[in-house]
Amino acid sequence: MRIRDAEPADWPAIWPFFRTITAAGDTYAYPRDLTSEQGREGWMLSAPGRTVVAVDEDGTVLGSAKMNPNQGGGGSHVASASYMVAPEHAGRGIGRALGEHTLAWARAEGYRGMQFNAVVEANVRAVALWRSLGFEVIGTVPEGFRLPDGSYTGLHVMYQAL
Amino acid sequence: MRIRDAEPADWPAIWPFFRTITAAGDTYAYPRDLTSEQGREGWMLSAPGRTVVAVDEDGTVLGSAKMNPNQGGGGSHVASASYMVAPEHAGRGIGRALGEHTLAWARAEGYRGMQFNAVVEANVRAVALWRSLGFEVIGTVPEGFRLPDGSYTGLHVMYQAL
């Protein structure tokens, strides 16, 4: 597996798992009915943001990440990032590799920290992964996320200094 | 003073203080060099968001607020809001009135909470105002905001259940 910059031509390979993940509605605070065009606009970033894909030896897209300044102006020295891994390729360390890649990018770009604004508390594997990469929960919006079954869980703000 | 829905024709009256506040760079994590067009696009919201103006008896625009869902999908039951008061009208309770108005709107629209994502810790008057309206600091991004003098201050995440 390697990680490279995403190109416009990669979107048709990202969209199937992007759609599956957003439609499931249990891990991302995105509308569940995003169209391909809306998804593409939100995910495929240009500078100062960046979008990458993780691909295997034969070029199959396994996952993707986007990274960007989390705020503008006086807040633009803190980066943020988002990640999606194709469900059929879960458990292969792709999320971890993408996480490490985005942290390396943020350090190289001179960001002083990385912040995730909305990590679903019930998504315990993601929370554990980000903790293992150095992030801490610095606050939780109580009942900030409604799961598809109608129950509520917290939305973590996670952060690490770089 | 009364608070009413903003109309497109209000933007020329909002822009002077919007520009002053964003160019100062000490209270908002917005780019400091936003154009009028960029400011208008970001501030003048349509449904499900909403933008209001506070006006005095002769129609002078004293301040403005925008309000919107803070996240999409499973996070769309938590509102957010932003406020700007013309500096020459500070100290008249306009920020407080706008804050109360947005909270009433959020309750009426059925939101379960209101969240501010990025309140500058050094903006002690704003932090005190939001506390007095029921918000609590639920987390702080350490050194999340760079002040114009080059020093760093925290960025608070503030929240209250509705």
Structural overview:
2 copies of one chain form a homodimer. Chain A is α+β, with helices and mostly antiparallel strands. Chain A has one domain (2-161): Gcn5-related N-acetyltransferase (GNAT) (Aminopeptidase), CATH 3.40.630.30. Helix content of chain A is 28%, strand content 35%. Chain A has a 7-stranded mixed sheet. The longest helix of chain A is centred in the middle third of the chain and has 15 residues, at 94-108. The first copy, chain A, is globular, with a radius of gyration of 15 Å. The two termini of chain A are 26 Å apart. The mean pLDDT of chain A is 97. The A-B interface holds A 22, 25-26, 28-32, 71-78, 112-113, 115, 117-118, 120, 138-148, 155, 157, 159, 161 and B 22, 25-26, 28-32, 71-78, 112-113, 115, 117-118, 120, 138-148, 155, 157, 159, 161.
* Count of distinct strands of chain A: 7
Order of helices and strands of chain A: EHHEEEHEHEE
Structural class of chain A: alpha+beta
Strand order of the largest sheet of chain A: 1-2-3-4-5-7-6
Q: Per DSSP, what share of the residues of chain A sits in E-state strands of 2 or more residues?
A: 25-35%
Distance between the termini of chain A: 26 Å
- As for the number of domains of chain A, it is 1
The number of helices of chain A is 4
Oligomer: homodimer
CATH architecture of chain A: 3-Layer(aba) Sandwich
Percentage of residues in helical conformation of chain A: 25-40%
Largest sheet of chain A, in brief, is: 7 strands, mixed
Averaged pLDDT of chain A: 97
CATH homologous superfamily of chain A?
Gcn5-related N-acetyltransferase (GNAT)
Question: Biggest protein-protein interface?
Answer: A-B, 37 and 37 residues
| Rg from alpha-carbon coordinates of chain A | 15 Å
Net shape of chain A: globular
CATH topology-level name of chain A = Aminopeptidase
CATH top level assignment of chain A? Alpha Beta
Low-confidence spans of chain A = none
